[in-house]
Specification:
The protein has helices at 29-33, 36-40, 68-81, 91-111, 125-140, 159-168, 185-191, 214-223, 243-246, 271-275, 311-327, 329-348, 375-384, 397-402, 419-430; strands at residues 3-5, 10-12, 49-50, 53-54, 56-57, 119-122, 146-150, 171-175, 196-202, 227-231, 250-254, 265-269, 287-290, 295-297, 353-356, 365-370, 387-388, 390-392, 408-412. The protein has 434 residues and is an alpha/beta fold. Strands 6-12-11-10-9-7-8 form a 7-stranded mixed beta sheet, sandwiched between helices. It has a 4-stranded antiparallel beta sheet with strand order 15-16-19-18, covered by helices on one side. The protein has a two-stranded antiparallel sheet with strand order 1-2. Helix 3 runs antiparallel to helix 11, helix 5 packs parallel to helix 6 (159-168) and helix 12 (329-348) packs parallel to helix 15 (419-430). The structure holds 4'-deoxy-4'-aminopyridoxal-5'-phosphate. 4'-deoxy-4'-aminopyridoxal-5'-phosphate is lined by residues 124-126, 154, 156-157, 202, 206, 231, 233-234, 254, 395.
Length: 434
């Protein structure tokens, strides 16, 4: 029996992909872990018909679909609670403020942060990284300091640091990866030094699915006194995060990648660090007193939430996190890992298909190329079959360039996807004809 290592588990090439190693039997992973068909009923958009075919949503790394409970929460807010927050004595202000602050507590609990003061609401991962670069970064990074990134980063975790380096005279250092898309840890260690002030690291690569050794890197960076920002845009919905264990200085994520609304995201920041940092945006809501001569700021987290917040979407994000927590991230990660193995095995049987990025630790993202077809042609052909995948540079041009590429097709899975959908996709790829 031939096998290969797709990520951390062995897969048997000539058996059906899901193989129970304890009893040697094939089993239905969907039923064994949770009832995926029941879960799918929570997502109304999965009933859409695209080009006369049932929608198959394999673009989860770009954005996730929303369960009815999140959609309902938004509607309920506008029907029963809508008001600005923190600023009025009337009933709706109290309802909206409670809903908003309850969501902050939900995020705190989800991450296991010590305090709600460490949770700041922003537009998304991009705005979160900009917040850190343009507040703490501007105040603390000096000429000659080094900002250490990796080759895997999304543009959101490159551009703000590049701008900061240009403005301050600091230097961007890029840690290399191997041909499978794994960070070369020995090389990484050599790049950490007394000049390193900030380490920026994606938890999961949005192009290759590589799960980075975040815990080890946080520990190494802290040993030399550097601060660490984790970009959790891709990990938040796929692997459990305990912030007190991982112990980054900041961690950022977007609500829309975890079944919540677009336009809302979170910066977790260590309390002492946030306390010592001046805000980057200013105006209403973040001040304590204002005169033309003197201004004082409110304590964290409000100091970093200038202007009217995206209140309804904060509240709905809280609902999305509750929804995910009810299913359980460990169960989600296990199920998605099986889907990943199933899809990897199936895709590898397609003549001329090459998977890009085969890290040992991988999440449910598969980039690939198909001989004879541009990635955009593959994307269009799959769309004709109702299958949504991403094709392009995935806002991460440096890693593609490192691998000698300009674009790939990216198939990214979530817990509402099924083996049957993967089978449809494989059949469509086998028959592709542009
Ligand atoms: N970082 C990573 C790893 C991402 O995948 C993304 C979104 N594709 C972002 C940052 C940016 O997220 P947003 O566009 O929601 O701000």
């Amino acid at each position: 029996m031939e096998y290969f290592k797709a990520n951390t588990l062995r897969i048997y090439q000539d058996s059906a992909p899901i193989f129970n190693k304890s009893n040697g039997k094939l089993y239905d992973s969907n039923a064994a872990i949770f009832d995926v068909e029941k879960i799918r009923q929570d997502f109304p958009i999965l009933n859409e018909v695209i080009n006369e075919k049932p929608l198959i949503w394999f673009d989860n790394a770009s954005t996730t679909q929303k369960p009815q409970t999140v959609i309902d929460r938004l509607t309920y807010f506008y029907q029963h609670e809508n008001s600005n927050i923190h600023r009025a004595a009337h009933t709706l202000a109290a309802r909206a403020t409670d809903a908003y602050e309850n969501a902050r507590e939900t995020v705190r609990h989800f991450l296991n942060a010590k305090s709600v003061n460490e949770i700041i609401f922003v537009k998304g991962t991009t705005e979160g990284i900009n917040l850190v670069a343009k507040s703490w970064g501007k105040q603390n990074i000096k000429a000659g300091d080094e900002i250490l990134l990796t080759h895997l980063e999304h543009h959101a975790n490159i551009v703000p640091w590049h701008q900061l380096a240009m403005e301050t005279g600091a230097k961007l250092i890029v840690a290399p990866v191997d041909d499978q898309g794994q960070i070369l840890l020995d090389e990484y260690k050599k790049l950490l030094g007394s000049r390193t002030k900030l380490v920026g690291l994606c938890h999961i690569s949005n192009v290759l699915g590589t799960v980075t050794p975040a815990q080890e890197i946080v520990n190494l960076a802290h040993e030399i006194g550097a601060k660490v920002l984790i970009d959790a845009a891709q990990s938040i919905a796929h692997i459990p995060i305990d912030i007190q264990e991982l112990n980054p200085d900041w961690l950022v994520f977007s609500g829309h990648k975890i079944f919540g609304p677009t336009g809302i995201g979170v910066v977790y920041g260590r309390q002492d660090l946030l306390d010592a940092t001046d805000p980057w945006q200013s105006g209403g809501n973040m001040i304590s007193e204002v005169s033309f001569e003197h201004i004082s700021y409110r304590p964290i987290p409000k100091r970093f939430e200038a202007g009217t917040a995206n209140i309804a979407d904060v509240v709905a994000l809280g609902k999305a996190l509750d929804y995910v927590q009810n299913i359980g991230l460990t169960a989600i990660a296990n199920y998605e890992n099986e889907l990943l193995e199933y899809a990897t095995l199936g895709l590898k049987t397609i003549p001329g298909l090459h998977i890009v990025g085969n890290a040992m630790e991988k999440a449910s993202v598969i980039s690939f190329l198909l001989d004879g077809f541009a990635p955009s042609e593959v994307g269009q052909a799959l769309n004709k079959q109702g299958i949504a995948v991403r094709s392009g540079h995935h806002c991460a041009q440096p890693i593609l360039k490192r691998l000698g590429l300009t674009s790939t097709v990216r198939l990214s899975l979530a817990f509402y996807n099924t083996k049957s959908e993967i089978n449809h996709c494989i059949k469509a790829l086998e028959k592709i004809d542009c």
